[in-house]
Amino acid sequence: MTLQEIAEFIGIDCQDEKEITGLNTLLDSNENQLTFLENKKYISDLKNTKAAAVLVTRENASEVPSGAIALVCDEPYLNLAKISKLFAPNVVEIDGEKPLVGGGTKVMPNVYIGKDSVIGSDCTIMAGAYIGDNVKIGNNTIIYPNVTVYRDCTIGNDCIIHAGTVIGSDGFGFANTKDGKYIKIYQNGNVTIGNDVEIGANTTIDRAVFNSTIIENGVRIDNLVHIGHNCKIGRGSILVAQVGLSGSTVLNAYVVMGGQSAAAGHLEIAAFTTIAARGGVTKSITEPKKSWAGFPLFEHRQWLKLQGKISNLLK
């Protein structure tokens, strides 16, 4: 769409007819994309953006780089939500190529495979699986019954996806109007899963708002785990049952999270960190190779001492 068409859609005057191909973050945008600034803490990112245009308040309009067009509005985040619908792909494609299935792959009855999808060789796709449009699955991967893989997602070689798991469902993203109404932010990214990944039953991995939710090689994910949009799970990490990760959380390599532990969004956990069961991570962990427990989070050894002292109070 042209920038003028987009501006008209949200009631902003802009005569520029530059073609806009999509939406992205401040730092990841290119010269054909639209971005936004709502929170002042990202003002330095605004100054370095390469976006064609930025949704921005009048207060921050002067900070928009000379190469970008400022679309001045009262509520940039809300307007981004409205615009995201314009770039959302079709839920189901009617046109496209028939799926390609590699040699030696077994596809059981009652499996749906969408347009333009590619499945590698020696895979097993069990009954009730739904593989959406433009999905790519590597070689020697097993998809158990009733797994759902939404459109545009990718799964590598030698993976195992257990029954009932959903890959690529929409991330939980909404903007509020002033009267409290929720406006959906369309999740136009995907999920990318590397090689040698095993995902347990009834786990959900949300697609990204922009770009990809990433599961790197060698990750092990238990049953009933939830991974929010735009998370990145580093190679060799382990997530035990009922772990929950809010959006844009980054786990570096070989992080272990015990059962029912969780992390708030937009934070990073250092490599080789261990979070004990029911631990709650609310701030980034920068020092690697440490163990943590509790909520609020303590180093594991200190947490054990604290529990001991509390027990003594009850005697």
TrEMBL record:
Residues making up the signal peptide according to the UniProt record: none
Catalytic activity, as annotated: a UDP-3-O-[(3R)-3-hydroxyacyl]-alpha-D-glucosamine + a (3R)-hydroxyacyl-[ACP] = a UDP-2-N,3-O-bis[(3R)-3-hydroxyacyl]-alpha-D-glucosamine + holo-[ACP] + H(+)
Annotated ranges, domain UDP-3-O-[3-hydroxymyristoyl] glucosamine N-acyltransferase non-repeat region: 19-86
Keyword NAD applies: no
Location of the active site: 229 (proton acceptor)
HAMAP family referenced in this protein's UniProt entry, alphabetically: LpxD
Record-given protein name: UDP-3-O-acylglucosamine N-acyltransferase
Taxonomic classification: Bacteria, Pseudomonadati, Campylobacterota, Epsilonproteobacteria, Campylobacterales
